[in-house]
Each structure stands twice: as structure tokens, then as C-alpha cells.
Design goal:
This protein is mainly α. The chain folds into two domains: 272 residues, no CATH class; 60 residues. The chain has 13 helices and eight strands. Strands 1-4 form a two-stranded antiparallel ribbon. The protein has a two-stranded antiparallel sheet with strand order 2-3. Strands 5-6 form a two-stranded antiparallel ribbon.
């Protein structure tokens, strides 16, 4: 089971950062004449990344409007300073304005993500980019609920990883400055940083469900970057984050049942998006959906794949059964769970060569 394969999860971010560096080397490791650049000199990550940022296309697609306009129209700085518990740096958290027609809700995806229509006045708005608290100096990141609930032993370990956090994230997205107003790049980076930090947090803050939430949201935002810049390899980071999401969602199912990590630390954050909290139902559905989508990446043998499918089918069956017996559960999640259950059942029949009786 994915939940049983997390013994090496402490190496996860190290692996992602290392792989991300290789990814960047692949997508920028070329030579050639560039404006104001010597013939044949290889571009570094920062040079290429910010040459893209300076283009009008990149600014339009990632909301990199002039800071003063963006700050007035889309986001604002909190009046009270936030003090980083790791390095004692004081900063003002950037928050998304609510109301005013800034968010035009679109469809709900199969992954329970709410899409938003472009706004003629404010452009494209990415609410997910503002969810995580990130210290601009040491890049310690987390949800506001537990941002300052750090034990002394955790502080020391998080301080030691400051350099790795910065160099690691730069290998994936290039230099990123959290003093600036946030855009899509900041949003994607914030979730990767948060996962890195939750690796070093204790069970009292329920790090496993939070890593699951951060992984799926990172996958979404890197997917957005991949759509805007299809040649830069963000699709590979997206797929990697999806597989990590399902590895964290699977043990979250057990945590919801056993209470091994405190429920009060994460039940209000389950989302998975910020527009609606689908709770435990969403965890069951999304774990099943991601397992089906990335089955071959999660298990090598047919036996292991069938075991994964059977486990998720069982959970989905219970969800659908309880949904039919209860009027309180939203019909949309019940209908989606039923369709997913049937898709898993069909695949299992194809894999085993069996057809159900009747």
C-alpha cells in the first residue's frame, strides 16, 4: 500500500529538489547568442526564468502586474506583523481580498478543484497562491493554524535546513522572492516549501494530511504553469506531486479512522481546494481518483495494483452507500464517487478477466 511505503519520505523533498535541478538543467542547458550575453555562454536558472518573467506574456499569465496595482486590487498586507518562529524575521502576510467580483467561479473538476473564470478587471486570480504562510527570509512555510506551534527541537532542525530550502526550491522554479506580491510561481513554490517543513514537524500538528493537501495543490499549480509554459518541463513536476499526493492521502484515510494525528489540526483544511471543504468524503474520493489515475506508478505488479483498487473500491462503496441513506451529503460528491466506483470495478474486471454475476 502507498501508506506503507513512506519509510523513506524524509528523502522526498531532497529527491524532488535534486530531480528538479536536473529538470531545470534539461530545459535551460543550451548555448547560443542572446541579447547582451556572450556568444556560447550557458544560461543559468535565474537568467532564463526571469527573462521569461520580464516578458509581457509571462506577466499577463501569472498576474505579474505592477505591484502597486496588484496589491490594491487583488491582495493586501495584514496590518499585524507575523514573526517567523525559526529566524525571528518579521513580515506582513499577503492575503487575498474577498468579494468585489474578484473571483468568478467556474466548474468543479474531477479532482474537486474549483476553477475560476478570467476577470476582465482583475485578470486571472489564483486563490491557492495565498494560502500558505512563508517567511521571506528563511522560507519556513506552513498553514497559519500551526505556523507558530513549533517545538524547540523542531526549530533547530528547521534552521539547519534553511540553505537547503532555498537552493532546493530555486532548482525547481528559479529564484523566488516572497517579499514580492504573489503570483502563480510563488503559490506553487509555497506548497513545496511547506511539505519540506512538515517533514520535520511532530505528529501534534498532523503533518501527514497537511502534506497530502499541499501535494495536490502543488500539482494543480504546477499544472497551471505547464499549460502556460508547455516547454519548460513543469508537467514532470506536476506528475511527481500527484504521485506524492496519493502516497499521503492513503495514510490520511487511516488517520481519519484511528486519530493517530489530531483531527482538530486538519479537518477544517481538508478542502482540497479553498472554496469548499469536502472533509473525509473528499479524502476517500480523491484517494480513489488519484490511485486509479496513477496506478501504474504506484504499484509494479498486477497483484499490488488490484490490492490498491480493491481497498479504494471498498471505501468508495461505503461512501456511496451512506450517501444514499443520508440527505445531508451533497449529491455531487455521491454521484462522482459512484462513477469512480464503477470505473474501478470495470478496470478490475478487465485485469482479472472476470464479469460479475447477474
Amino acid at each position: 500500500m502507498p501508506g506503507e511505503s513512506l519509510a523513506g519520505e524524509k528523502e522526498y523533498i531532497k529527491l524532488l529538489f535534486s530531480w528538479g535541478g536536473s529538470l531545470l538543467a534539461y530545459r535551460i542547458g543550451y548555448t547560443g547568442a542572446e541579447p547582451d550575453r556572450p556568444q556560447g555562454k550557458k544560461l543559468g536558472a535565474a537568467s532564463l526564468f526571469y527573462s521569461c518573467q520580464e516578458s509581457k506574456s509571462y506577466r499577463d499569465q501569472t498576474l505579474m502586474a505592477p505591484p502597486i496595482n496588484k496589491q490594491k486590487s487583488i491582495s493586501y498586507r495584514a496590518k499585524e506583523n507575523t514573526v517567523c518562529p525559526i529566524c525571528d524575521f518579521e513580515f506582513q502576510q499577503e492575503l487575498l481580498h474577498s468579494g468585489g467580483g474578484r473571483l468568478i467561479a467556474g466548474k468543479l473538476t474531477q479532482e474537486l478543484r474549483r476553477l475560476y473564470e478570467p476577470n476582465k478587471k482583475f485578470g486571472r486570480v489564483f486563490p491557492l497562491a495565498y494560502s500558505m504562510v512563508v517567511c521571506p527570509q528563511c522560507l519556513y512555510a506552513g498553514f497559519s493554524k500551526d505556523y507558530r506551534l513549533v517545538d524547540p527541537s523542531e526549530v533547530e532542525n528547521l534552521q539547519k535546513r534553511t540553505v537547503q530550502r532555498r537552493t532546493g526550491i530555486e532548482k525547481i522554479v528559479g529564484p523566488v522572492d516572497f517579499h514580492e506580491d504573489r503570483n502563480l510561481v510563488h503559490g506553487a513554490a509555497s506548497y513545496v516549501l511547506a511539505i519540506d517543513c512538515y517533514q520535520l514537524r511532530g505528529q501534534n500538528v498532523a503533518p501527514t494530511p497537511k502534506k497530502a493537501i499541499c501535494s495536490i495543490r502543488a500539482a494543480w499549480l504546477f499544472g497551471d504553469l505547464a499549460e502556460d509554459f508547455p516547454t519548460l518541463g513543469f508537467d514532470k513536476v506536476r506528475d511527481f506531486m500527484y504521485t506524492k499526493a496519493v502516497e499521503y492521502y492513503d495514510p490520511t484515510l487511516d488517520i481519519m479512522s484511528t486519530g493517530r494525528e489530531p483531527h482538530e489540526q486538519f479537518t477544517m483544511l481538508l478542502g482540497p481546494d479553498v472554496d469548499n471543504n469536502w472533509g473525509f468524503d473528499g479524502v476517500i474520493y480523491l484517494n480513489g481518483y488519484l490511485t486509479l489515475k496513477y496506478l501504474k506508478m504506484l504499484a509494479d505488479t498486477k497483484e499490488a495494483q488490484l490490492e490498491l483498487l480493491e481497498r479504494n473500491k471498498r471505501f468508495l462503496g461505503k461512501l456511496y452507500g451512506m450517501g444514499r441513506a443520508s440527505k445531508s451529503k451533497p449529491s455531487v460528491i455521491i454521484d462522482m464517487s459512484k462513477e469512480l466506483y464503477e470505473s474501478i470495478q470495470k478496470l478490475m474486471e478487465e485485469m482479472t478477466g472476470t464479469v460479475p454475476a447477474g
